[in-house]
Design brief:
By secondary structure, the protein is mostly helical. The chain has a domain at 36-84: Arc Repressor Mutant, subunit A (Orthogonal Bundle). The chain is built from four helices and two strands. The chain has helices spanning 11-24, 39-46, 50-59, 75-84, and strands at 36-38, 72-74. The protein has a two-stranded antiparallel ribbon with strand order 1-2. The longest helix has 14 residues, at 11-24. The protein is rod-shaped, with a radius of gyration of 29 Å. It starts with 10 loop residues before the first helix and ends in a 21-residue tail after the last helix.
Length: 105
């Protein structure tokens, strides 16, 4: 059986060192890229009330995460939810009635 004397020769130590350097250099593993927002920050960003955000989360329309005590919302999810609330424009006023004239023949 071969004995390994130094940490640099250890296959286990080398794999950890390589993965740590990859993390520092922006390698394969990364943390969450999107910005996390609290419910208050999400409400300020969407220009609505805290209760509107809370209702959307409870209803299931807005995905949220609770890693600890605080409820967090991804900025991308907030943007998608906000865009889904767009209303369709309608012509102002009443539509005109079409009048048909029949000639008595």
């Amino acid at each position: 059986m071969k004995r390994i004397n130094t940490a640099s020769e250890s296959p286990v130590a080398g794999s950890f060192v390589g993965s740590a350097s990859k993390l520092r250099q922006g390698g394969e593993r990364k943390m969450i890229r999107d910005k996390l927002l609290t419910m208050d920050e999400a409400a300020d960003l969407a220009k609505c009330s805290y209760h509107t955000i809370h209702r959307a989360i409870k209803k299931g329309d807005l995905p949220a995460y609770k890693p600890g005590k605080n409820v967090l919302v991804l900025e991308e999810d907030l943007s998608t939810w906000f865009k889904s609330k767009r209303i369709q424009t309608v012509r102002p006023g009443r539509p005109r009635r079409r009048v048909e004239i029949h000639r008595g023949e």
